[in-house]
Design a protein that fits this description.
The structure is a homodimer. By secondary structure, chain A is an alpha+beta fold. Among the domains of chain A are: about 405-505, Immunoglobulin-like (Sandwich), CATH 2.60.40; about 510-625, no CATH class. Helices cover about 35% and strands about 20% of the residues of chain A. Chain A has helices at about 15-40, 45, 65-80, 85-100, 110-115, 130-145, 150-165, 180-195, 195-210, 215-220, 255-270, 275-290, 320-340, 340-355, 390-400, and strands at about 5, 10-15, 375, 405, 410-415, 420-425, 430-440, 445-450, 455-465, 475, 480, 485, 490-495, 500-505, 510-515, 525-530, 535-540, 550, 560-565, 570-580, 590, 595-605, 620, 620-625. Chain A is globular, with a radius of gyration of 25 Å.
């Protein structure tokens, strides 16, 4: 069923003018900043199990996931660029986790120290299994980096213990976690250890979800009331019906994405077409009417949830950084099934926009929410009470290499045009390497050169992004070739020789994007995009507020490279002439159009991901398309 | 503090080409339809207290409010147009209420029959005091219509009983209702009976609201869990802080309006400036950023609540009919304080648009929600499970006369330009009458003629609506006069003679309205308005979907009268040339603007209140302002 395997990031060396800097910042700034914040807030100390009432920094029930995700992200960064200082921190945190495990295998600092009687009592809200999942992921990453089994063994003890508690057998709890994650993590643990029970347990958690009688309802009957200030309906947890009957993406966006990742993983490992089909149905729903142009998902602060079709408000957009990151996780899994371009298009959209915006250019401040419109009061923070996003983005950046290439026994598929060298196997042992370079993301030139010890017959398939739509010119070893695109990929089948080079050029033009007619809050407005980037306008670049700015239909925009911050990398900005609608300071909610005076204004747009790095102010992605001033 | 008294509807005979028909439809169609639905659903039978488990039509805890509101509305209709058949129904329902009262004074069919142990146990959600309030209002209306004290006495027994249960005294429940209403109703009962304890109890309910420890939290501790599938935070009930500390309109919109009505009433009766000031602060917040151009309020289906400033999505707008109706109730009370035009402007906006849309042109179908955008699946219903809206609108229509005029000892103020004759007193006995006639709402001519037995010195103040902004011509007894507008009213002070006539003409032009820059979902879009009416466009009038329609800047629109339905009254419609953006059936969520082909299309707009009376289809109020096709 799943035809493709992605080349793991350990086989892929990224060397790309745009991404080198983002990865450097992640390694040198974001991970140290996150470590510092975990330290300062007591998250690491919590694992010492020494907290007592009256002491500062009372642990929280999801803290273990914050520290585990930092550990996992740090392992990835250390794997692509060895770093003794970071490695020492990794060893320390891994040891803290190992030391926090109880003799029965249980591992959760909060419940061990603060609330032992509640262990497994409130699966709906208490994140215990979610935290366990992140510990499994960290353990696999740690094992892959270090070769040590210490943390992996602890993870297995925890998984074995959980396996003894949960399931449909006599005396077991027939429940599952309110926040999915353990499902995909158990599959990873299964892959790392070969232990089939972990896969079975992942399948159990997925299959049991939404079965009647609903566990969350049974569980609630025995709970004291104090946990229920604001309950949520079963759909919030994707537990309203069994997963194979779910047709629409619903509820908490990150929970949904993690569930769908787990479903895809179990579908792959067990060759279950019903689970895969459910994923495809859910994908179509999301893609048709529930995702922002930035690859953000989650339309409302209320529960951080999906809402109704075409309900994609820009200012109230939740678009949690974790949601775009986990959308990429899911899309990546789906892409390995069919190799369909739509999944790679979505990865690219979310990666360059809604996910990347989660981190400041200097890597030291983070967004939790990524709205498409701000009145000027939304800014990145050092940290959050619920600080899931920073380390999730760092995990993504650390494994970026995994998203570029896939292979089958006779095909090597290039999904993202990010400069990199990768060794590939075509399903066996290493057969050769491919080096991709070019001018993306700002330009359209891409060059793929093969390194092969001996001639080899296979298909090289290169994605033509939806935003490009075509290839201006295709050359193989300098000879112009017709560019036939099938299902969004150039498919070049031949006996390849070492040194063979494919060169191609995508048209990269500034595009005006319009929304579906039902996305009525964007009616009459356009978004600017160029290559993989969505653009926005910020107060910093205007005299007056961007809330008053329109862009005339037909207005040409010029392109130039510019550093937005001192010593920052240069980005491509768009400039031209816009329209400013001058309004009074005491602007009423509604007034006659005749009260608004329009005049021409210099116009400038920057990539969305780079907003809120300069003077704080308003920002918007969707811009009214006006007549001339 | 409250300078003005409105002329009660019993003194005002409406005779207006537009409103005569609406009132006829209410009397002849809506009230009989609501009676029939109350009968069919068992709402009247519930008052017989004969329901037993296993029988159909199990009562609901808010049913008494549906029947009481019908009774109240029917009394108003019968007062302005005697009707023996309706009167017989009134007598029957009044008798049912009287018969449903228990010996201790308690009156609530649901709790008496279905759930007696829960009496007063869940004030937060159970609407018992809310229902009592509607019984008080019905009883006052019934007494005013019939002169009988039967139902009024029953209401007093209920109020006395409630007074013995609630309050801060020893052994009393220090609580208040989750759904406000009893506060304003107790003030009405106080005014009708002169009993000061009812005013004191109203003041208690208002003053206690939001005091710590919060009653809703104390109460919840002793409740079984089964009522809590979806709890709500205290702000939902306007109980987050004491009412005088509330600065922003929050929570359930109808609850909020009823509370603010009660606050204004108690402020008036007790001359309490702190309560009035709180109302003024709340008004400013609502007016500045939380009301739709139709006078609708409540931005989200989730809890039918207010949300954040400038969050006014059009398709997800809740805009419950009851919310616009109760906004009018509140605005009317505030208007009597200062006579400020802004309150009359809001009454007019909500009356002609967001409230009136709650009823079909034939008066037999009703909207609960009144969105400003529909994809074509929102239609009026015969009835609702929670059927608060139909009778609330009928109550408003029955008392429409009360909203037209106010008086002080030396001033008669004309707020709404609806044809009517009214006797006025200037604070004493009847001094004379005023007859208003003219071409409004479709035209701008207004004529006010005085009927006075002897010359009388006073000020006649005539509102110049905000939408008019000025008076084209003012004539007194045929002589052209300068029109001086002060605070939105023409103030004409003189010794008036019988037969004196004031004629004036407002400019009535089609207006294009723009939203505040922060109402970004309307950016680049305009709403059409003319006189008091907001307009909309409906699929019925277009080839293609109105979701694809734009209106070029500068496009002239012509006006004509037209009946939208057979035998319906003629309304003024707007026509011109619009732009249709042709899109594919399988329209993606986002696509290049170049994929959309624009062409000219005939354009037609109708008054918003009259939508969904023809072929079902999409509707929108806010329309993109485009360049020419």
């Amino acid at each position: 069923m799943f035809r493709y395997s992605s080349l793991p990031f350990q086989q892929v060396q990224i060397n790309d003018p745009f991404w080198n800097e983002r990865l450097r910042v992640n390694h040198e700034q974001s991970l140290p900043k996150q470590y510092e914040m975990c330290e300062r807030t007591g998250r690491f100390d919590a694992l010492k199990l020494e907290w007592k009432p009256g002491m500062p920094n009372r642990p929280h029930h999801y803290w273990d996931s914050d520290t585990a995700k930092w550990l996992e992200a740090a392992c990835y960064a250390c794997a692509i660029r060895p770093d003794p200082e970071l490695r020492a921190q990794i060893d320390r945190v891994a040891a803290l986790f190992i030391g926090a495990q109880l003799s029965d295998g249980y591992l959760n600092a909060y419940f061990t120290v603060c609330d032992p009687v509640r262990r497994w009592k409130n699966l709906k809200f208490n994140h215990e299994l979610y935290c366990a999942g992140h510990i499994f992921e960290a353990a696999v990453a740690h094992h892959q980096l270090t070769g040590s089994r210490d943390l992996l063994d602890a993870a297995c003890r925890l998984a074995d213990y959980i396996d003894s508690i949960f399931g449909l057998g006599e005396g077991k709890i027939p429940g599952y976690c309110g926040h999915e994650e353990i499902e995909l993590a158990l599959v990873r643990l299964h892959r790392a250890t070969g232990e089939k029970r972990y896969l079975d347990l992942a399948a159990y958690f997925i299959n049991q979800r939404g079965q009647k009688p609903l566990w969350f309802e049974l569980e609630t009957q025995h709970l004291p009331q104090d946990f229920l200030p604001l309950d949520q309906p079963p759909a919030y947890f994707q537990a309203h019906v069994p997963v194979r009957e779910q047709k629409e993406v619903v509820g908490h966006a990150v929970r949904a994405m993690y569930l769908y990742c787990g479903m895809a993983d179990v579908a792959r490992e067990t060759a279950d077409p019903t689970l895969l089909h459910a994923c495809e149905t859910l994908w179509k729903d999301m893609e048709a009417c529930k995702v922002y142009v930035t690859g953000g998902i989650g339309s409302t602060w209320y529960g951080e949830t999906f809402t109704t079709p075409y309900d994609l408000p820009n200012e109230r957009a939740y678009c949690e950084t974790c949601a775009s990151v986990s959308l990429i996780f899911w899309a990546h899994r789906m892409l390995q099934h069919s190799g369909e371009r739509k999944y790679a298009d979505m990865i690219e959209r979310a990666l360059y926009n809604g996910a990347l915006s989660g981190m400041s250019l200097d890597g030291r401040k983070f967004f939790y929410q990524n709205p498409l419109l701000s009145f000027g009061h939304h800014h990145r923070s050092d940290w959050f009470e619920c600080s899931c996003c920073p380390s999730n983005l760092s995990r993504l950046l650390g494994t970026l290499g995994s998203y570029l290439f896939s292979e089958t026994a006779d095909e090597l598929r290039v999904h993202l045009h990010i400069g990199a060298s990768a060794s590939f196997t075509l399903g066996g042992r290493t057969q050769g390497a491919l080096r991709q370079e070019g001018s993306t993301p700002w330009g359209g030139a891409v060059r793929c050169e093969l390194e092969l010890p001996s001639p080899l017959e296979f298909t090289l398939a290169i994605r033509v992004p939806e935003w490009a739509g075509k290839v201006n010119a295709l050359r193989i070893n300098g000879d112009l070739q017709p560019a036939e695109i099938r299902d969004g990929y150039l498919r070049l089948s031949r006996v390849w020789q070492g040194g063979d080079a494919v060169e191609l050029e995508f048209p990269v033009e500034t595009r005006r994007i319009v929304s579906h007619a039902k996305l009525a809050g964007n009616a009459g407005q356009i978004a600017l995009a160029r290559g993989p980037f969505v653009y926005c306008i910020e107060d910093h670049d205007f005299e007056g507020s961007v809330l008053d700015v329109g862009l005339p239909a037909g207005q040409e925009l010029t392109e130039s490279r510019e550093s937005l911050v001192p010593e920052g990398e240069s980005l491509l900005v768009l400039a031209g002439r816009g329209v400013m609608s001058a309004r009074s300071d005491q602007e009423p909610l509604y007034q006659p159009a005749t009260a608004v005076h329009r005049e021409e204004t210099p116009f400038k747009a920057i990539p969305y991901f780079a907003w809120d790095n300069r003077t704080p102010g308003a920002m918007r992605v969707w811009i009214p398309e006006t007549g001339q001033a």
